[in-house]
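Example record

One chain of 252 residues, shown exactly as stored in the release files.
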Amino acid sequence: MHQADVLYTRHVKSRRTIYLFYLNVKDVASRYEAIVPIGVALKGPAKSIKNMQGILTSSTIAKCLEKIYDDPKNPLIWPKVFLSDRGSNRTFQEQFYNIFDAYDLLDTSSDIIELEDLVIIVDSIVEDFNNSVTRLLGMSPAEAIKKKNVFAMPSKPRKGPMGYDEKRLSYGDSVIYLLNLSEYEGGRRRATDMNWSSKIYNIRESLIQKNQPVLYWLEDDEGNSPERSFVREELQVIPPDVEYPPQWVLAN
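Predicted structure tokens for this chain:
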């Protein structure tokens, strides 16, 4: 199972290309990752891009994925499951900005920073990630991806059983989920806002890993799903004999 996200940084001009985004693909088990810069080649004497809309298309993402998985030097292979969320790779962004001096970052006269060879720099950052020992695995991602099975320590201590020993919800359970700040209007919770989702969902899919909390994906009766997964503590089971208020009441 791999996780794919699009990362954002300051726009960087390298040679005759302006790079706007970065596709980050990471193997969930081993933490091995690959990053492909996404940019637009400048034509003629142009020094900037006037229209940046329409660059990040499904076709562009598909080409980047092919570049990653068709590379014989890359141990990542096409996965059966892709995860995607709105998170960001802060570690990459921190390492990325470390290559600039303070003047470049504080200069607001232009949205574009110039570098000699961005691709080589990104590759060196990723190589450092993949060859550094991670605390949860006790080995580097480059070592972990060669193994048939990898067991990771939980990122946070958790009371009670986890993984295969954890009591799991069934696909027939009806649940509501705990809202996070991004799901409130304006990104802030007001005193009158609900703590839990206004819709009832069913368990669509679950993922069980050794020494890790079980992850759940949800789906409502219309086939709509939240964009993230949940652990048991973020879900509240609705008993079958409980009648939930009409949706028009909850929505208001």
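Notes: The mean pLDDT is 80.
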